[in-house]
Design a protein that fits this description.
This protein has a ten-stranded mixed β-sheet with strand order 2-1-3-12-11-4-5-10-8-9, with helices on both faces. The chain has a two-stranded antiparallel ribbon with strand order 6-7. It is built from twelve helices and twelve strands. With 371 residues, the chain is of the alpha/beta class. Helix 1 crosses helix 10 and helix 1 packs across helix 11. The mean pLDDT is 95. The protein binds adenosine-5'-triphosphate and magnesium ion. The site of adenosine-5'-triphosphate has 14 residues, from loops.
Length: 371
């Protein structure tokens, strides 16, 4: 329960496509873990923030969406987007990106781990497939500023003098808080290593500034080893030497790229979870799988629900501040995921023939049984 003794309020937004198929399995495991570890949750399912809702109402969310989420501690989100009926820029900007912006979710967290039982697309220098334990990283992306601004424009369009400018904006507060968050995460992990992504050899004003700020924050974390890498070589090393990485922190654009590349290095997109955090807890944080609504497989109940289930585990851990029951519930879910990946059943993306529901049931059973 929360500090005032009330259950945690969770808004549940299945969204579109396979979001609607994986969410019930996320909830099944969330409920099982909450029951076992004595965490009181009040779950409220929401049908807006979906393209179905848009078809009826002509917008992705009701005008009073913020008021409707008043008092909510976290959002569990499936996937949004159905390009056949609603253009992606409308569905995305009308829901997910609104949450990120309005709820100041300035940290985007994406763990990427290789599991036993999941074929890895990467090989080592001898050509052997990478082993579990060789890839275990946490990507921390700045989620609200940097390269993603609308400042700029096209000038003298259609003339010989045509040019375009798009600004990047980094604030000291914005950059420092993401760096601090990443150092905190690194400090709590076994290897205590942080890689700071940069490009100060090419982007000659903002990136040296970012490097200097990282060096300044590093003084407060003497137990963390830091290494600064240019984004170009960093991406190459993700593929060639993934074992070098523990926590990786990056600006919005670089983090966006790395947080797709990281999970891609570990097998299927069906496993990758993410958290959009407002660590100050002034606003709710949002937990969602990295994958989208996957229209190509929707309706067959074959989507891998593990990314959704792992996202629910991240939610429990964050709600309880990484302590006590929430951390135990998170760890129990992770152990159950590991066991099911190792021993089966598997969905088709992992070469099996089990359906979405079967995987959710198998993981929930193991959470209840404690193995
Ligand atoms: P975005 O939402 O970022 O635009 P997208 O719509 O381009 O992403 P996804 O919906 O993530 O892409 O799907 C990409 C591919 O991965 C598709 O072929 C899809 O079937 C597959 N895929 C995505 N999620 C899963 C899952 N949970 N299980 C199995 N396959 C998946
Ligand atoms: Mg999509």
């Amino acid at each position: 329960t929360t500090s005032n003794g009330l259950p945690y309020q969770i808004a549940v937004i299945p969204g579109d496509g396979i979001g609607k198929e994986v969410m019930p399995e996320g909830l099944r495991v969330l409920r099982a873990a909450a029951a076992r570890f004595g965490i009181a949750l009040a779950l409220r399912e929401i049908e807006w923030a979906s393209c179905d809702w848009y078809q009826v109402h002509g917008e992705m969310m009701p005008a009073d969406w913020k008021a409707q989420l008043q008092g909510c501690d976290a959002l569990l989100f499936g996937a949004v987007g159905w390009p056949a009926t609603v253009p992606d820029h409308i569905s995305l900007w009308g829901s997910l990106l609104k949450f990120r912006r309005e709820f100041d979710q300035y940290i985007n967290l994406r763990p990427a781990r290789l599991f036993d039982g999941v074929p890895c697309p990467l090989v080592d220098r001898q050509g052997r497939p990478r082993q579990p334990g060789e890839i275990d990283m946490l990507i921390v992306r700045e989620n609200t500023e940097g390269e993603y601004t609308n400042l700029g424009g096209v000038m003298f369009a259609g003339t010989e003098r045509e040019f375009v400018i798009q600004e990047s904006v980094y604030t000291r507060i914005g950059a420092e808080r993401v760096l601090r968050y990443a150092f905190e995460q690194a400090r709590q992990r076994r290897r205590r290593h942080l890689t700071v992504a940069t490009k100060s050899n090419g982007i000659a004003i903002s990136m040296p500034w970012w490097d200097a700020l990282a060096a300044e924050v590093a003084l407060d974390y003497p137990e963390v080893t830091v290494d600064r890498q240019h984004i170009d070589i960093l991406t190459a090393r993700f593929v060639l030497q993934p074992e070098r990485f523990d926590v990786v922190v990056a600006t919005n654009l670089f983090g966006d790229i790395l947080s797709d590349l990281g999970p891609a290095c570990t097998g299927t997109i069906g496993l990758a979870p993410s958290a959009n955090l407002n660590p100050d807890r002034r606003f709710p944080s949002l937990f969602e799988p990295v994958h989208g609504s996957a229209p190509d497989i929707y309706g067959r109940n074959i989507a891998n629900p593990i990314a959704m289930i792992w996202s629910a585990a991240l939610l429990l851990d964050f709600l309880t501040r990484g302590e006590g029951a929430g951390r135990a519930a998170h760890d129990a879910i992770l152990r159950a995921i590991e066991a099911v990946l190792r021993e089966g059943p598997h969905t088709p993306d992992l070469g099996g023939d089990a359906d979405t529901t079967r995987i959710g049931q198998a993981i929930a059973e193991r959470v209840v049984a404690g193995c």
